[in-house]
Design goal:
- The complex is a heterodimer of chains A (about 250) and B (about 230).
- With about 250 residues, chain A is an alpha+beta fold.
- Chain A folds into two domains: about 1-110, Roll (Ubiquitin-like (UB roll)), CATH 3.10.20.30; about 115-245, Alpha-helical ferredoxin (Fumarate Reductase Iron-sulfur Protein, Chain B, domain 2, Orthogonal Bundle).
- In chain A, about 35% of the residues lie in helices and about 10% in strands.
- Chain A is elongated, with a radius of gyration of 20 Å.
- The N and C termini of chain A lie far apart (about 60 Å).
- Chain B has a single domain (about 5-230), classed as 3 helical TM bundles of succinate and fumarate reductases, CATH 1.20.1300.10.
- Helices cover about 75% and strands about 5% of the residues of chain B.
- Chain B contains nine helices and two strands.
- Chain B has helices at about 5-10, 10-35, 45-55, 60-90, 105-110, 115-135, 155-160, 165-190, 200-229; strands at about 140-145, 150.
- In chain B, β1 (about 140-145) and β2 (about 150) form a beta hairpin.
- The chains are: A alpha+beta (about 250), B mainly alpha (about 230).
Chain lengths: ~250, ~230
């Protein structure tokens, strides 16, 4: 199949980018990223700069791939990362517009690569538990209710890809932050630091310049892992509880 | 900064302000609607004028009215501030292709809350100039019931709703209010942290019912007076 690609090209973070049009010969068995590999190979052969894009595991679990494909983060399918989109979903002669994530907190570094380190700093602010490392614990030493474990695991499946921010008309990072808060605050190991965690992570999220959630739910629709906005409600209520209920006055 | 200032100026605190003031305004609309329904009694405004007299002369209600003005302003100012912040967070370069898929919400309403809100704010300015200002500071025609003088607000309603552009503006604004409430009602609960398997479906249903019935009844009044009176 012959495809026309309109790809955002930008030399570096300071440069002004623009769309470039390419044609590529792909087949339906290729993944979306393999199709871009083919394009890049051609560009290298022509002694041109290949298109920069992020990828790592290529099996939908690492969260490295991104891209906004025809207006949708991670392309047209539900619950799928870009690397798991296959070319059989396109037909010969299609035009595909490929853009980087757009958000002030995710500045474009080069072409389709954005700096997502804001998410790392939100995790550093509270996305961890403080425990003594030592002997491995016995399994089931701490009882956890099955439903709670399931909900915590659902939240923990967030791969931190940033599609929620890319999809949100407000560029809000609340789905990501709330998934991390919910995952840890639901489990007994995370309960110890629950109040401080939600306060610190929300504070960092605000510092990074993400937008404010207005419950549009575009994040939930585009999340490749199907993270639910019920996590955002949980974060709202934990933040309210921690702000009003904690003994800290400053 | 005190803990409270930090809390209320944080992203989630700002949202909470929108939610709580919004819910207060939702309650207020019920009271306002109850008053307006007196127009349909067919008694040439007797019940309506008595009700408006009660609402403007009861000290407790007067107090709540000032709270209401403050909450309307707070809701509007905070809403505009959020809109500006969100525009800034999105960054200068938008998407060349824009698709907004959503789950469980009306995407037209949710994406346009700020514009719908501004429409309602403009309407509110005109609406208050039309009635509230005249009652408070202007000269309202008087009417006498059982030897006592009352402001004849009913006469103001009748004369206003004879003017075509005012009727059109009121009806258009109620369409805006419908969309604003359609998202705002259930969104207010989500912001408060209430998202529950048992209660959220009920809240969504009530939200739909409220958003349809309240603006519809409000809009029916100018239409009734313009076409049938």
């Amino acid at each position: 199949m012959k495809l026309t690609l309109k790809i955002w090209r930008q030399k570096n973070a300071q440069a002004k980018g623009k769309f470039e049009t390419y044609t590529v010969e792909a087949n339906e068995h290729m993944s979306f990223l393999e199709m871009l590999d083919v394009l890049n190979e051609e560009l290298v052969n022509q002694k041109k700069e290949p298109v920069a894009f992020e990828h790592d595991c290529r099996e939908g679990i690492c969260g490295a791939c991104s891209l906004v494909i025809n207006g949708q983060p991670h392309g047209p399918m539900n619950g799928t990362t870009t690397c798991q989109v296959h070319m059989r979903h396109y037909k010969d002669g299609d035009t595909i517009v490929i853009e980087p994530y757009r958000a002030k907190a995710f500045p474009v570094m080069k072409d389709l690569v954005v700096d997502r380190s804001a998410f790392d700093r939100i995790i550093q602010a509270g996305g961890f538990i403080s425990v003594n490392t030592g002997q491995a614990q016995d399994a089931n030493a701490i009882p956890v209710d099955h439903d709670v474990a399931s909900s915590a695991f659902d939240a923990a499946t967030c791969i931190g890809c940033g599609a929620c921010v890319a999809a949100c008309p407000n560029a809000s990072a609340m789905l990501f932050t709330s998934a991390k808060v919910a995952h840890l605050n639901m489990l007994p190991q995370g309960k110890v630091e629950a109040q401080q965690r939600v306060l610190n992570m929300v504070k960092q999220m605000d510092i990074e310049g993400f937008g404010r959630c207005s419950n549009i739910t575009a994040c939930e629709a585009e999340c490749p892992k199907g993270i639910s906005v019920t996590n955002i409600a949980r974060m709202n209520r934990e933040y309210l509880g921690a702000s009003l209920g904690s003994e800290k006055t400053a | 900064m005190s803990w409270f200032t930090k809390f209320i100026t944080s992203s989630l605190g700002q949202k909470l302000v929108m939610s709580l003031t919004g819910l207060f305004l939702i309650l207020f609309l019920c009271v306002h609607l109850y008053g307006n329904m007196q127009l349909y009694k067919g008694d040439e405004g007797y019940a309506y004028n008595l009700f408006s007299h009660f609402m403007t002369h009861n000290p407790v209600i007067e107090g709540i009215a000032y709270l209401l003005y403050a909450f309307i302003l707070l809701h509007a100012i905070q809403g505009i501030a959020l809109w500006v912040q969100n525009r800034r967070a999105r960054g200068g370069q938008g998407y060349a292709v824009k698709v907004t898929r959503t789950t469980n919400t009306n995407s037209f309403a949710s994406r346009n809350m700020a514009f719908l809100g501004l429409l309602i704010l403009v309407f509110l300015g005109i609406h208050m100039g039309d009635f509230w200002w005249k009652v408070k500071f202007g000269t309202t025609p008087m009417v006498t019931y059982e030897g006592e003088d009352y402001q004849n607000l009913y006469a103001l309603v009748e004369s206003s709703f004879r003017i075509g552009w005012i009727v059109a503006l009121y009806v258009l604004s109620m369409v805006g209010l419908f969309f604003h409430l359609l998202h705002g009602f259930q969104s207010a609960f989500q912001t408060l942290g209430i998202n529950h398997k048992k209660y959220t479906p009920v809240i969504r249903f009530l939200g739909w019912v409220y958003s349809i019935i309240v603006p519809l009844l409000f809009a029916s009044m100018p239409i009734y007076y313009y076409f049938f009176k």
